[in-house]
Design goal:
The protein is of the alpha+beta class. It has helices at about 5-35, 40-60, 100-115, and strands spanning about 70-75, 85-95, 120, 130-135, 140-145, 155-160.
Length: about 170
C-alpha cells in the first residue's frame, strides 16, 4: 500500500473516530437521558395547581374570576432535548390592574416563597416587568408578569417541564 492510498483511509478513520467520540460524549448519553421516565401529565397538572394555590395565597390578591381557565397543553417542540411526544402544560391567573404598591408586595412575596421555601432560582431571561423563577429540582417555571409601575395587568403563570403524558416514552 502506498502513502497516497493510505491518506483517504486515514482521513476516513479519523473522521469516524471523531464522530464516534462526539456521539459517545454527548449524543448517545443524551439520547438515553431523553428517554427517561417523567412524572405523568396529570401529576404535572396537580403540581401546577399546588404551586398556583401556594403562590396565590401568599400574594393576597384575588384573581379575576374569568381568568381561571383550563390548562394550556403544548407539544414540546423539536428544539426540546428529547424525542417527540412529550407535553408541556401551564395554567395561570390574571389579577387585573393592581396598584403599584400591591405589585411590589406581590413580587416580594412571590420571590420569598419560591426562592426561600421551594428552591426556585431566578431565571436568566427575567425582565424589569416580570419575575421569572425556575425550580432546578423539578423544572417547573413560575412567572409573575406585570410587576413594573408602568404595567396595567398583573398575572401569574406556572408551567411544567416537558413530560411524557403517561410518564414513559411511547414505544
Amino acid at each position: 500500500m502506498t502513502a497516497a492510498s493510505r491518506t483517504p483511509r486515514t482521513a476516513f478513520v479519523a473522521a469516524l473516530a471523531i464522530g464516534v467520540l462526539a456521539l459517545s460524549s454527548c449524543g448517545l448519553s443524551t439520547v438515553s437521558e431523553r428517554r427517561k421516565p417523567t412524572i405523568t401529565l396529570d401529576e404535572a397538572r396537580k403540581q401546577v395547581d399546588n404551586y398556583l394555590a401556594e403562590i396565590q395565597a401568599k400574594l393576597s390578591i384575588e384573581p379575576l374570576a374569568s381568568s381561571v381557565g383550563d390548562f394550556s397543553d403544548l407539544e414540546c417542540n423539536h428544539n426540546d432535548v428529547g424525542p417527540h411526544g412529550r407535553k408541556q402544560t401551564s395554567r395561570g391567573y390574571d389579577f387585573g390592574d393592581v396598584p403599584s404598591e400591591r405589585k411590589v408586595e406581590a413580587a416580594e412575596a412571590f420571590r420569598t416563597l419560591l426562592m426561600g421555601k421551594k428552591g426556585f432560582e431566578m431565571a436568566p431571561d427575567a425582565t424589569f416587568d416580570w419575575v421569572k423563577l425556575k425550580n432546578p429540582k423539578d423544572g417547573f417555571v413560575a412567572v409573575l408578569d406585570g410587576v413594573s409601575e408602568s404595567s396595567h395587568n398583573l398575572s401569574l403563570n406556572v408551567s411544567t417541564p416537558c413530560v411524557w403524558p403517561k410518564g414513559t416514552p411511547s414505544p
